[in-house]
Amino acid sequence: MEAIQRQDVSAYSHRVTFSVEDNEFVATCAEFPALSWLADSQGVALQGLVDVVADTVDDLVSRGEVVPRRPFLPSLGIHTRPRGVTFSLGGWRTGPDRT
């Protein structure tokens, strides 16, 4: 049996929060909103999610299906305007003094 190389999923957006309702930590992934992992500790919840996301990506790759793209990392944009300089993160901001 041939060993399958595991996909690197470390660049996906992982989040761990505490669920009062479940009384456990819940790990989620923005690119795979249907997946989550519950555990008694943050580390175990995160590792469980990373494993299930990697398994899911491996499955998608083996079937030739589309794998969700890793997130775009925002960059700091500096826009110069006649009225001054506007700094924005991830997009252009509008307001009463900006056109």
Helix content: 10-25%
Integer-rounded radius of gyration: 20 Å
- Output the number of helix runs: 1
Which structural class do you get from the secondary structure elements? Answer: alpha+beta
How many discrete domains? 1
Counting DSSP E segments of at least 2 residues, the number of strands comes to 5
CATH architecture: 2-Layer Sandwich
Task: State the CATH topology.
Answer: Double Stranded RNA Binding Domain
Poorly predicted residue ranges: none
Mean pLDDT comes to: 78
Order of helices and strands: EEEHEE
* Main sheet record: 3 strands, antiparallel
Report, as a whole number of angstroms, the end-to-end distance.
62 Å
- Highest-level CATH class: Alpha Beta
Query: What is the overall silhouette?
Result: elongated
What is the strand arrangement across the widest sheet?
1-2-3
Describe the structure.
This protein is an alpha+beta fold and 99 residues long. The chain has a single domain (1-73), classed as Double Stranded RNA Binding Domain (2-Layer Sandwich), CATH 3.30.160. It has one helix and five strands. It has one helix at 42-62, and strands at residues 14-19, 24-29, 36-39, 76-81, 84-89. It has a three-stranded antiparallel beta sheet with strand order 1-2-3, covered by helices on one side. The longest helix is centred in the middle third of the chain and has 21 residues, at 42-62. The chain is elongated. The N and C termini lie far apart (62 Å). The mean pLDDT is 78.
